[in-house]
């Protein structure tokens, strides 16, 4: 059985945190605003990515208060999680390229006269 690397664990944790954040927001807005699943999820995504098209907005005092805290906490967490995912993707890509170049150099040392 393969063990999970530190990079994979970070990506899994970041994705779980993003999922929990979106799920929590979706549930709260469904309850407070009475929106459908897709509308509540859409609002959470546009809010956390700071796009905010304005087609949906909180209308009750409770949902406006929740939105204030959701933004303060959620934007930082979601951007940090996306940064972790991006950093680890770049690290895996760099590792793959370094490994390929190392194999190529090793092959070239064995066959110095062959072009390639």
Protein architecture, described:
It is a single chain. The protein is 78% helix and 0% strand. It has one domain: Orthogonal Bundle (Helix Hairpins), CATH 1.10.287. The two termini are 37 Å apart. It has three helices and no strands.
Strand residues, percent: under 5%
Q: What's the CATH class, please?
A: Mainly Alpha
Shape: elongated
Radius of gyration equals 22 Å
Annotated CATH architecture: Orthogonal Bundle
Mean pLDDT equals: 90
Helix content: over 70%
Measured between the Cα atoms of the first and last residue, the distance is: 37 Å
Tally of individual domains: 1
Summarize the structure.
With 116 residues, this protein is an all-alpha fold. It has helices at 6-33, 37-48, 61-110.
